[in-house]
Amino acid sequence: MIELIIPAIISCIIAFFVVYFSTPPLIKILVKKNYTVKDMNKKENVMVARPGGISIILGIVISEIVLYGFFQLNEILAVIITTTAAFLIGYVDDRKVMGGWFKPVALAIAALPIIFLGAYDTDLAFPLFGDVQIPLLYLGLIIFMIPITGNTINSIDVLNGVASGFMVIASFTLSICLFILQNYEIAIVSLPLGFVSLAFYKYHKIPSKIFPGDSGALTFGAMYGVIAIIGGVEIIAAIALLPAVINSFLFLSSVKRVVEHRQIKGKPVEHTDDFKLKATNDKTAPVTLVRLILASGPLTEKQVGFAIFKLAIFSGILAIITAFMMGVSL
Amino acid sequence: MKSGLYGFLFAMWSLIIIGGGIMVVLLGPFTIQQFGDFHWIIPSGIKVTIALVLVVIWILILSKLKNYIFKKELTF
Question: Per CB distance under 8 Å, which residues of A are interface residues toward B?
Answer without folding.
Answer: 124, 126-137, 140, 235, 238-239, 242-243, 245-246, 249-250, 253, 268, 279-283, 285, 287, 289, 291-293, 295-296, 307, 311, 314-315, 318, 322, 325
